[in-house]
Design goal:
Mean pLDDT: 88
CATH class of one domain: Mainly Alpha
Structural class: mainly alpha
Shape: elongated
Distance between the termini: 36 Å
CATH superfamily of one domain: Tetratricopeptide repeat domain
Low-confidence stretches: none
Helix content: over 70%
CATH topology of one domain: Serine Threonine Protein Phosphatase 5, Tetratricopeptide repeat
Order of helices and strands: HHHHHHHHHHHHHHHHHHHHHH
Number of helices: 22
C-alpha cells in the first residue's frame, strides 16, 4: 500500500502539486515509517511550502535511514540554503555530489549556494562543471550566466542565456535572467521585454517581478543612475562594499575639513560636498521613494511585492508631512516649520530602510531603531523641566538619523537564519 501512495506522490511532485503529494507521502510513511525516500520527498514538499524546520527534520530522517541516497542530501542542502545557512548547505551539497558526481542538478545546487555566499568564481566553476555532464541543463546555464554577470562578463552571460532561450524559449526563469543581464548592460528596453515575457509565462515568478520593478524605475534618468550604482555594488564582496562606503565618507570629511581650513577653496569644494550628501541620501531613499511612484503605474502596481508596497506606504506617510513643512518654511522662515521639516526629513532615512532588511530580527531591529528615533525629538520638545536631557534627546535624534545609513547597511546585508 505504501508503494502505491509513494508512486502517486512522485507523480504529484512532477505536477508541482506539493500539498497533495505531502498527503500521499504521509500515508506511505504511516505504513512504513522507515521509508527513507518518502522522508526525503516529504522534506521537498515541506520546503516548497516554506515549512523549513519540518523540512530539515524530514531530510535528516531520510539521511539517517538512507545515507547513500543523493537526493536526501540535496534536499537538506536546499533547505539549509533557504534557511540562510550556506556553510551547512555547502557540506550537504558536496555530499550529494560525492554520491552522484555526474548529476547536473547537484552542480546547479552547489552553484546556487555559492551565489548565495557571493562567491562568484566558485559558482561559475560549479555551473560549468555541471554543463560538462549536461550541456543543455537549463539551471546550470542560467547559473553560469548569473555568475558571469556578477563577474562583470555581461557579454558572455548574454550569449549563455541566448543559447538557453534558443533551446527552451518558454522558460520563464531564463527570460527573467536575460532581463537582469540587460539591466547590468544598461539596456532598460530589452530588460522590460524579457521581464514581461517571463511574467506572461509565470505570473508568480518573484525573480521577474523584482526585475520588472527595477526596469520600470530605471526609465527615470535619476533612478537609472542610482540603479547603475546599486548593480555595481551588488557585484562586489561585502568587504569591498564597506571599503567603498567608508572611503567615500572619509573623502567627504577630508574635503569638508579642507574647505574649512582654506576658505578661498570653498567655492570649488562645496559642489563636491553637496553632491556627496545628495548621493548618500539617494542611496538610502531612492528605491522606496521611486516605489511610491510605481504605485501609479499600470504595470508597477502589480509587480511590487508586499514588502515594497509597505515600504512605499511608510515613506509616503513620512514624506508628505516633510513636504508640507517645507512648503510652510520656505516662504515664512518659521522656526516651527523648520523643526518639523528636520524631524520628518531625517526620519525618512531609517524609515526607508525597514523593508529593505531581511524579514525576521534584522527588520525588527531596524523598526525598533526607527521608533526610538521617532520618539526622541518629541521628548526633547515637550520635556522642558530638564534642559540638558532635552538637548541630549535632540542630539541623539539628529545623530541617530544621520548614522541610520550605517545601521541600515549592516542590517540590510544581514540574513536572518531561519
Amino acid at each position: 500500500m505504501e508503494d502505491k501512495h509513494f508512486h502517486r506522490a512522485l507523480i504529484l511532485l512532477e505536477q508541482s502539486r506539493h500539498d497533495l503529494a505531502e498527503q500521499e507521502l504521509r500515508l506511505a510513511l504511516a505504513a512504513d515509517p522507515d521509508h527513507g525516500s518518502a522522508h526525503a520527498f516529504l522534506a521537498q514538499c515541506l520546503l516548497e511550502r516554506d515549512q523549513f524546520h519540518e523540512a530539515t527534520e524530514e531530510a535528516k530522517a531520510a539521511i539517517r535511514l538512507a545515507p547513500d541516497f543523493p537526493f536526501a542530501h540535496a534536499v537538506l542542502a536546499r533547505t539549509l540554503a533557504a534557511r540562510n545557512r550556506p556553510k551547512e548547505a555547502l557540506v550537504s551539497a558536496e555530499e550529494a555530489l560525492r554520491l552522484d558526481p555526474v548529476d547536473a542538478d547537484h552542480y546547479a545546487l552547489l552553484a546556487t549556494i555559492h551565489l548565495q555566499s557571493r562567491n562568484w568564481p566558485s559558482a561559475l566553476a560549479a555551473a560549468e562543471e555541471g554543463l560538462v555532464h549536461d550541456a543543455e541543463h537549463v539551471g546550470c546555464n542560467n547559473l553560469r550566466a548569473m555568475a558571469l554577470t556578477n563577474l562583470g562578463r555581461t557579454a558572455e552571460a548574454g550569449a549563455t542565456i541566448a543559447a538557453a532561450l534558443s533551446r527552451s524559449p518558454e522558460d520563464p526563469f531564463s527570460h527573467a535572467n536575460r532581463g537582469w543581464t540587460a539591466l547590468h548592460e544598461h539596456d532598460t528596453k530589452k530588460a522590460l521585454e524579457h521581464f514581461r515575457e517571463a511574467l506572461r509565462l509565470d505570473p508568480e515568478l518573484d525573480f521577474a517581478k523584482a526585475g520588472l520593478v527595477e526596469a520600470l524605475k530605471a526609465r527615470n534618468p535619476i533612478y537609472g543612475l542610482m540603479l547603475r550604482y546599486f548593480l555595481f555594488m551588488s557585484r562586489l564582496s561585502g568587504q569591498t562594499q564597506w571599503a567603498i562606503v567608508i572611503g567615500g565618507y572619509l573623502a567627504f570629511q577630508f574635503l569638508r575639513k579642507l574647505g574649512a581650513e582654506n576658505p578661498e577653496w570653498a567655492p570649488w569644494i562645496k559642489p563636491f560636498i553637496v553632491a556627496y550628501i545628495v548621493f548618500a541620501l539617494m542611496t538610502w531613499i531612492a528605491s522606496p521613494l521611486f516605489n511610491v511612484m510605481l504605485r501609479f503605474n499600470k504595470y508597477g502596481r502589480y509587480a511590487l511585492s508586499d514588502d515594497q508596497r509597505r515600504g512605499a506606504n511608510l515613506v509616503t506617510l513620512v514624506a508628505l508631512p516633510a513636504l508640507v513643512f517645507l512648503a510652510w518654511w520656505l516662504p515664512t522662515d518659521d522656526p516651527y516649520a523648520f523643526v518639523g521639516l528636520i524631524y520628518f526629513g531625517l526620519l525618512l532615512l531609517p524609515v526607508s530602510a525597514i523593508y529593505n532588511c531581511d524579514s525576521g530580527w534584522p527588520r525588527r531591529a531596524m523598526a525598533l531603531y526607527t521608533v526610538v528615533l521617532a520618539t526622541l525629538m518629541p521628548i526633547s520638545l515637550f520635556i522642558t523641566q530638564n534642559r540638558d536631557f532635552a538637548i541630549f534627546c535632540f542630539q541623539a535624534h539628529l545623530w541617530g538619523s544621520l548614522l541610520s545609513g550605517i545601521v541600515a547597511n549592516i542590517l540590510v546585508t544581514t540574513r536572518a537564519k531561519r
